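**Polypeptide and fold**
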Amino acid sequence: MSESLQELLPLEISAPSPNNKDQQISLRIDRELVQNYADIGAKTELYQLFYNVCGLIPPVNNIGYHEELNTQGTLIFPDASKGLESSSALFRGLRRPCFGQEGEKDVFIYIVNPTYVYEYVPHMVCMAKRELAPENAVLAVYVVFDDDQLIKGKVVQFELVRADQNRPHLPKDYINRYDKQIW
């Protein structure tokens, strides 16, 4: 990935609306988030941003090099990530400080159950390898909306968190972790 990483990200991505899960809204990716990951060389996180949040194959030379092919020469497991479009749950409000800022109550948390993640692997041919996502984890994607209509907003952070044992499509201790489940 190069310094033009910002240009490779889509200007907007689709996500289910907080008001109606069956309707799509547009979200932006916080450019400062991307720049911070790029500045510290957090390649795995950038790959996850592209793949598990935006639903795009990471822009890495020779992507797919490490994946196994079947006898027909195609990938054994297809790329099917739809990023935030495939969110399984949405919460509002964190019950902890949020990114060193006030406004924890205004943060929306989309929960994605990724099947695969891309990991950074130092290799001369391709530096990204698709792996099965950790078994007991979900991806929490933090979004702040621009207005009260909840139509436009931006992704400000994301992280893999441990999944709930009884409801594996939700984060562990989600009842105490978040203020309210929207859907």
Notes: The first strand starts at residue 13 and ends at 16. The CA atoms of residues 62 and 126 lie 5 Å apart.
